[in-house]
Amino acid sequence: MSFNKLFPMVISVSAIFFLSCGGEGKSGENALPNSAKIEVTSVNLNNTSLSLDLGASFSLVPIIYPDHATNKTVTWTSSNESVAKVAVNGLVTAISEGSATISATTNDGNKVATCDLSVERFITVSYDELDSWLAHSALSERVNYVKVLEVPSHALLGNSYSRESGELGKKIKTGGKKLFLKIASIQGDYNSIGEYAFYLVRNLVGLDLLDCTNITTIGDYAFFSCSDLITVDLPHGLRTLGNHVFRSCTGLEHIDLPETITTIGKHVFINCSSLAKIDLPAGISSLGSRVFSYCSILDSINIPDSNEFFFFSWGSFI
Fold first, then answer.
1. pLDDT at 83 exceeding the cut of 70
2. Residue 216 contacts by C-beta under 8 Å, 6 or more apart in sequence?
3. What is the pLDDT of residues 271-301, one digit of tens each?
4. H or E stretch including 133?
5. Residue 18 falls within a domain, yes or no?
6. Does residue 256 sit in the same domain as residue 133?
7. pLDDT in tens, 20-47
8. What's the confidence (pLDDT) of residue 121?
């Protein structure tokens, strides 16, 4: 037999042998088995509770068990997307004040891990970092809620001779962004917000001094003509409002006067044309002249019945 006649026979026999042994790897007793699937048994997160400042972000990381599970992918969800959103990679971004639960659900087995999130209204900034934050991080298109730490006491004293605001007031004015300011702590010996401290700082829209319980006095013209100032919270322990403190704060709508106030100087709220209601504290003993003049929509002044020693100047209420 010639070689040319033998060759096709050899090929045919080889093909038959290959097929009979399960050559495709899917059947036959000599086929290799598929790798066994390793299922997810549980999932945790690198944080189970989290507090973020408004606008801040944080990456949550899922920890899958066992570590060599076949499918370690997860799906992220936020229970309140108006407060915080979460991206497909676990990056959480705080959008507004409030709380939300961020969940990671495994795509294998629907195992769930959660993180309780709270978003703070105020962004915390140290006094030394304030200039940089105002220049690079504060937003121009909306009000910025900022809590300032470690304010030196001298920064709260303006210049009555040149009628200039204090150092903190100048920083805010120069920054040019609308601020709701919360002073969290003050360094040094202090018991007052000084004269002219925020004189003509017109981009200050809110003020929270509740943590400054050592303050007993707010000096003359301290917030004169802060025309965009809408709301003010004053600390317990405050005893005296000097003259003209909130004069011409034409946007002022709300102010809480603590029960510890005993003296309100002259012209304190003159020309506060958006102020409709005010409650005088029970302990007040002296009210200066023309305190509420030109408060054109003021229709309610509550004077406590318990006050038996209340002195007010002629024209305090006109």
1. yes
2. 191, 192, 237, 238, 239, 240
3. 999 999 999 998 898 899 999 999 999 988 8
4. helix 130-136
5. no
6. yes
7. 444 444 434 444 455 689 999 999 999 9
8. 85
Report the alpha-carbon distance of residue 241 to residue 173 in Å, rounded: 23
Domain-ending residue, one of 62, 91, 120: 120
Q: Please indicate, yes or no, whether residues 220 and 165 belong to a single structural domain of this protein.
A: yes
Do residues 218 and 142 share a domain? yes
- Predicted model pTM: 0.73
Same domain, 147 and 277: yes
Closest C-alpha among 209, 248, 210 to residue 229:
248
**Token pair listed for 149:** 């730490």
Read off the CATH number of the domain in which 53 is found: 2.60.40.1080
- The Cα–Cα gap between 226 and 199 comes to 7
The residue written with tokens 């510890």 in the block is: 260
197 pLDDT band, cuts 50/70/90, is: very high
In this structure, are 99 and 244 located in the same domain?
A: no
Lowest model confidence (mean pLDDT) among 29-33, 190-194, 303-307: 29-33
Q: How many domains does the chain have?
A: 2
Task: Answer yes or no: do 132 and 92 share one domain.
Answer: no
In a 10 Å sphere around its CB, with 0-12 CB exposed, 13-18 middle and 19+ buried, how is residue 118 labelled? middle
CB of 37 within 8 A of CB of 70?
Answer: yes
Model pLDDT, residue 232: 97
Domain boundary among 120, 146, 178: 120
Residues 103 and 144 in one domain: no
Domain with 69 in it: 42-120
Q: Is residue 16 very low, low, confident or very high in pLDDT (cuts 50, 70, 90)?
A: very low
Instruction: Give the residue among 114, 120, 134 at the shortest CA–CA distance from 176.
Output: 134
Q: Which amino acid is at 305?
A: D
Evaluate whether 316 touches 278 at the Cβ level (below 8 Å): no
Give yes or no for a contact between 151 and 188, defined as CB atoms under 8 angstroms apart.
no
